[in-house]
Every structure is written in structure tokens, then in C-alpha cells.
Amino acid sequence: MKRLFRGGTVVGPESSKKTDVLVKGEKILAMGENLDFPDAEVIDVEGKLLFPGFIDAHTHMDLEVSGTVTADGFDTGTKAELSGGTTCIVDFATQNKGESLAYALERWHGKADGRSSCDYAFHLAMSDWNEQVSEELAQVTAAGIYSFKLYMTYDAMVVDDRTIYEILARLKELGAIAGVHCENKGIIDARVAEVMKEKGHREDVSDYPGTRPPATEAEAVGRLLKIARCVDTPVIVVHLSSKEGLMEVRRAREAGQTVYVETCPQYLVMDESRYCLPDNEGRNYMIAPPLRSKEDQEELWQALREGEIQTVCTDHCSFTTEQKKMGEKDFSLVPCGMPGAEERPGLLYHFGVGQGRLTPEQMCRYLAYNPAKLYHLYPKKGAIAPGCDADIVVWNPDTEWTLSAETQKSDTDFCPLEGTVLRGRAEQVYLRGELAAENGEVIKEYCGRYVTAQE
């Protein structure tokens, strides 16, 4: 079957052009002005922007953490992603202590295969390191996984500096890369203990951000980048939240290092005042790193304007209000994470493009082109060009819609930005040439496929 998208403006990473797009089956076949194919279904997209299908390269679906499991598995989570314009996610298959990498991947395929409504790939989050795992990495990369994750905090996942060095050195040999959660565990543990010592309890969520101040992120970013410099390999700083952390990245880049940076919409549109909401509602906004100050927000927006940040991903890690109440008497027991899969493109367009902070081309880079390039999904994903998958988002810049728990696809019972009115929305979402979602409603379910990295 052929579809001809006529009259729209195709948005690329560097420029945009009004041009027709011909899709045959699952691929983009041709592009040009005034295309005419008698046997093609014509789709009038006059006045609309055509983005490549968005990629969310940081999600946690069906993750066992903090004594519970995230509210969204691949079923509801990928529907939320697709409804907003995301056609591919990269989730973290997680290796627990004592597990092989192959076992972790097998488990995650069991969670995702047949349950995903958008395409999906995997990073591998590593917690255990030994000679067997080192050898196994060669098999994993040969099978098409080139990105890995390391944690500098969390008891169940933390790796020490020597382990970080050895893993980075091994990944360098294999042409792979690591993204790292950067926070100083020792400072966090000490601060959490101080709250109990000073108050005799840890019930007040307003105390939470003080246990993970920006300096904990900055110290860990700086330490990671020094380790990476010793190995002489690029790394990715994931979910960067603070000006202080960004300053460490700038220093390393000035010294000649290659550092990639990811941030998330929550750090761009929400701030730490949420932790002071009445009745400890701030539990719903507990994420790690925490929400920061308005000054940090503006610094991140400026970094996006200047191209200092490469990707904007969600860190979608959803919990219900009931799950968040696990920390009702002790905020350190609250499972950290928030939903964000559905609203990410809308937030970046409304608060970025719509308010003059970003161009549509930058939005294309941060949500599609850059993650596709960084995570070896390009040229299959990340662009509208002949030969690419026909993942196309028909974006209506004039549509107004309201964020609401009542209408969201995520399986959580609250919306962090409840009532926020956004201008600009994915009117139609095509997954490999098939209309899969329209105006926030999923039309084709469970058509997602596993995608491996392109060498």
C-alpha cells in the first residue's frame, strides 16, 4: 500500500522544507514537490509539521524497584508513548546482582514482546561485574546492543569507581557506550540520616530535595568524567538536572572530552516548590535527581538553545499514589519516579518551540535524530528520508489540549501537570507506515517490534 502525505512541512535536524512524502509499505519511498502517484492514498497535511517518529531513549517499564513494580508495563506504557508521538523507546533491561546479561535480556523480552504498541530497543543496566560478564559483553554487542547503564547510587545497583573504570574500558574495546546515573551515594546517605537525627522522623517531603542537593549530582558527574578521561572514552550523563552538573560537563568539554548529555521535561517545566505542596502531595513528584530551582530550569533551557544537551527523554518510571504512600512515614521509602511518556513532545513544543526557546529543527534533533544517532538506530529511525522506516508524526501546531489523569494512557491515577493546557499536538502517528494513533487515541495496539542497533 502507498500513502502520499501532501502539503506538509517536513522537519529535519538542520532545516525544514515543504515537500510531499511517499510511503510504500513500511518504508519512505520518495520525497519531492508535487508528487503524484495515482494508486496512492493521499493524506492532506497542509499546514501541518511532519516530524520523524519520536524516540524516548530512557524508560523504565515493568521495573521491580523499591519493593514494588512500576505502574506501567510495556502494555500501557507504550500506548502512552505512541499516543503522544513516540514510535520507539529504548528501555533498560536490568541485570540484578548475580544474573548474567543474557538472563536480564531474556526477562525483558518476556516483558515486552507482544505487549508493545510502539517499537522498542534495549539498553542493558549493569550491577554485577566479573570476568564472565566481561566476556559476555562481546556476545551482547554482537547481538545489537551498544548502550549500557551504570548507577553511582542505589544500594541494589551502585558500582564503585574501579568497576566503572573497568566497564568503560571494556565497552571502549567493543565500540559501545555507557550512560550513567550521577549522584554521590555517600552524601545522600549521610543527609538522609541527618534528617532523622535532627527531626526524629522523615515524614516531611519538603526535606527530600535537601538530601540530594545539586552538589551531589555535580560531584558524581565530575568524578565520572575524570574516570572516563582516564579510559579516553565518551560517556552519557543521563537525566541531568542542575546548573552545577552542567558546569562539570562544560569543564570536561573544554579539556577536549566527548560528553553526551540527556535531560528530561520535568527538569524544564517543574521546580522544587512541588515538594512543599500540602498533605505531602510532593511524594508524587519525588524523582532522582529531584526537581531543582527555577534558575536550574533556565540554565537547562539555555543549554538546549545552545546545543549543549543532546537528547530530551522522559525517564518514565510511573507509580500510583498508593505506591507512593509506601513512604508515608519515611520519604526515603517512596519509590522515585514519575510518568511522562505521553506529554513529552507536547511539553517540548509548547514550552520550547511555542515560547521561542527552541526551533522545530532543535525539537527534531532532541526527540528523534540525536537519540537515533547516539543509540545506533539511525538510519532506520530518526529521520524522514527515503529508505527510513515510515515513522511519521503529523503535528498540528494549533491544537490545544489539556493534560489530565482522566484521559492519559499511563496506568497511574495522577497527572503531574494536571490541568496544563498545551498548544501543539500529534494529530496522527504513523508507525512503519500504518496509522497507529490519532489525537491521543491509540488505533493499532501491540504492533511494536524489537529493534536492534545498526552497526
Structure at a glance:
By secondary structure, this protein is α/β, with parallel strands linked by helices.
Q: Can you tell me about this structure?
A:
By secondary structure, the chain is an alpha/beta fold. The strands form 4 sheets. An 8-stranded parallel beta sheet has the order 8-11-12-13-14-15-16-17. A 7-stranded mixed beta sheet has the order 3-2-7-18-19-20-21. It has a 4-stranded mixed beta sheet with strand order 5-4-1-6, with no helix packed on it. Helix 4 crosses helix 7 and helix 7 runs parallel beside helix 8. The longest helix has 18 residues. The model has no long low-confidence stretch (mean pLDDT 97).
Outline the fold blueprint:
Layout: E1 2-6, E2 9-11, E3 16-18, E4 20-24, E5 27-32, E6 41-44, E7 49-52, E8 54-59, E9 64-65, E10 68-69, H1 74-84, E11 86-94, H2 101-112, E12 119-125, H3 131-142, E13 147-151, H4 161-174, E14 177-181, H5 185-199, H6 208-211, H7 214-231, E15 235-237, H8 243-254, E16 259-263, H9 265-269, H10 294-305, E17 311-312, H11 321-324, H12 344-353, H13 360-374, E18 392-402, E19 421-431, E20 434-438, E21 441-442
Parallel strand pairs: 1-6, 2-7, 8-11, 11-12, 12-13, 13-14, 14-15, 15-16, 16-17
Antiparallel strand pairs: 1-4, 2-3, 4-5, 7-18, 9-10, 18-19, 19-20, 20-21
